[in-house]
Design brief:
4 helices, Dihydrofolate Reductase, subunit A, globular, three-stranded parallel beta sheet, alpha/beta, single chain, binds NADP nicotinamide-adenine-dinucleotide phosphate
Length: about 170
């Protein structure tokens, strides 16, 4: 299974403000939505799930099958599954015959997947923004990785998309 991380980030590596605000451009949002609609699934951390549910964002991205990674069980409908770990999230998607998995944040979940060396490719939409503090692209954890740049693309005059392969 091909495992792809897709994130919007500020120039200095933040994926949200401290208050969870994510002021991304329309072009970024459209690019992400298109990607989700192609892959038809997302894997997200519990915090991201709660924010997306509150803001009713699942319908805006085509109601993908959503795996929420959490140590807790909670009520959810049939378009959602709960996984206790990143590996279990991928197992659930494999059992559903998905060829690709889209890892969609937030920072703690991204870090968990990187630490377990489960990410094959990374798409980063770099917005022309700097936050002094906020949620980091990867929360602090004990890992490092080398990447190979596959492609760069302009999403607009101001927003660039970087596409990397994770070297293993
Ligand atoms: N810029 C972007 O593209 C983008 C995308 C997505 C999210 N975001 C932003 O990111 C922020 C949320 O990120 P976050 O770092 O606070 O939280 P998060 O990664 O969304 O969720 C963290 C939670 O996920 C669960 N989790 C993570 N790793 C786990 C593991 N290995 N095993 C079991 N459970 C695990 C835990 O849930 P339990 O505590 O329930 O066990 C943990 O508390 C929000 O502000 C959101 O808006 C930005």
């Amino acid at each position: 299974m091909q495992v792809i991380l897709y994130m919007a980030t500020t120039v200095n590596g933040y994926i949200a403000k401290e208050n969870n605000e994510t002021p991304w451009s329309d072009e970024e949002w459209q690019s992400f939505s298109k990607f989700v609609k192609e892959i038809k699934n997302i894997v997200i951390g519990r915090n991201t799930y709660e924010i997306m549910k509150k803001d009713d964002e699942f319908s805006k991205i085509g109601n993908p099958f959503t795996v929420v990674v959490s140590r807790e069980d909670f009520a959810h409908n049939s378009n959602f599954a709960i996984a206790k770990s990143p590996k279990e999230a991928l197992k659930i998607l494999k059992e559903k015959s998905f060829a690709k998995a889209l890892i969609a944040g937030g920072g703690m979940l991204n870090s968990s997947f990187m630490k377990e060396k489960l990410i094959d490719e990374i798409y980063l939409d770099v917005e022309p923004l700097v936050f002094g503090k906020g949620i980091k692209l990867f929360s602090e954890n004990d890992f490092d990785a080398k990447l190979e740049l596959i492609e760069t693309k302009s999403l607009s005059k101001n927003t660039i998309q970087l596409h990397y392969k994770v070297l293993k």
